[in-house]
Amino acid sequence: MVRKSKRSLVQLPxxxxxxxxxxxxxxxxxxxxxxxxxAKTPSALKKALPKADGxxxxxxxxxxxxxxxxxxRLRAIANFAVGVNNIDLEECEKRGIxxxxxxxxxxxxxxxxxxxxxxxxxxxxPEGEAICRKDAFSGWTPDYLLGLELKGxxxxxxxxxxxxxxxxxxxxxxxxTVEYLSRSSSSLQIRQALGRAQVLSLHxxxxxxxxxxxxxxxxxxxxxxxIVLNTTRGPTVDEKALITALxxxxxxxxxxxxxxxxxxxxxxxxxxxxxxxxxxxxxxxxQARHAMARSAIQGILxxxxxxxIPNEVKLKK
Length: 317
Ligand code: DGY
Hints:
Distance between the termini: 31 Å
Number of strands: 11
Bound molecules: (2R)-2,3-dihydroxypropanoic acid
């Protein structure tokens, strides 16, 4: 990649950032190699797109044919996320625009958060914490705030990718048994696995075939003491059906880091004691987020330079 200097200024690509990310990392790793336009709002992005050779965006930015139509020079997009459901990959492929994401670097952080949700659900930690904060702890009794012991329970991980596997390893370390479902599992395999899923943890990427993968019919197959965890994308679960199941105590609990219409969290869900809710923080560790910034920057520069890069997203046919 060409470095900024007085003589080479004209050759540098223009990269539109939809968020300043971590300014020190951007200053050191992107600024020397690109003209940067910061476009933090949809209208700023609209204005910047005609000049963009590359776009480095967040999972909250929708990159559809509408945005691509405004970007005739665009050659590369890097998503600051491993999930790329916010980008129309087919349109990108048609137009010869290459796409990168940030896999691997957030695997451990996201798996650790799934584990934290599991423990929080099983031991009703937010309920207990809220009691203490309200000064409502009225004394120890034998049947107070009973939860579930996890050792020996059976976990089904829907999605045997990097994060699913890492989460499975953490669950195993805790003494759970684990099995995996893939997108190609047969409906019989899915039904049987759900019937024994005392823990069901979702890890599928969001695609048309995983939209509402966990629906009311599948929830009905779960054991009554099941804990459902979602750290991938909200729409993989039919949120309404899950709320109904939690309201009727059809399952024990749910730990949700993601929601169907983020950042909106339905009031009905917020009122329920038998769920643990987090604001999409799976990868929110300093280590992961810094590494994601570096990975996205290397991705956009590599693609603009015409290189083969390990984190290029290929359309699954
Ligand atoms: C991702 O990378 O897809 C995550 O959801 C970000 O936390």
